[in-house]
Design goal:
binds FE3-S4 cluster; 106 residues; iron-sulfur; binds iron/sulfur cluster; Alpha-Beta Plaits; electron transport
Length: 106
């Protein structure tokens, strides 16, 4: 399965949702997650993310392993999203910033 990782927080570009053939992205206030049981591992979303926040669970960068559980958990309660939206106005400033997990709104 594919996993949305920390750099999506406060960037939330949403390009990823448009390409997913099974519509398995779910939206929170400032982050998106993938529902792991619905994801068919097609890998189409990975290159679409301008923030490079999407990885296969087998290739997660060091320190991002906790996002496997975060995606599984939050996709159970957040609403589905299938259409691209405008990103937050300050998305570019947050792209690549460390320590964004503390800013995750649930
Ligand atoms: Fe959707 Fe494919 Fe990305 Fe899984 S890997 S979330 S099925 S686009
Ligand atoms: Fe997030 Fe990248 Fe999608 S920033 S919303 S995973 S395009």
């Amino acid at each position: 399965t594919f996993v949305v990782t920390e750099n999506c927080i406060k960037c939330k570009y949403t390009d990823c949702v448009e390409v997913c053939p099974v519509d398995c992205f779910y939206e929170g206030p400032n982050f998106l997650v993938i529902q792991p049981d619905e994801c068919i591992d097609c890998a189409l979303c990975e290159p679409e993310c301008p923030a490079e926040a999407i990885y296969s669970e087998d290739e997660l960068p060091e320190g991002q392993e906790q996002f496997i559980e975060i995606n599984a958990e939050l996709s159970e309660t957040w609403p589905n999203i299938t259409e691209k939206q405008d990103p937050p106005e300050d998305a570019e400033q947050w792209d690549g910033q460390p320590g964004k997990l503390e800013h995750l709104e649930r």
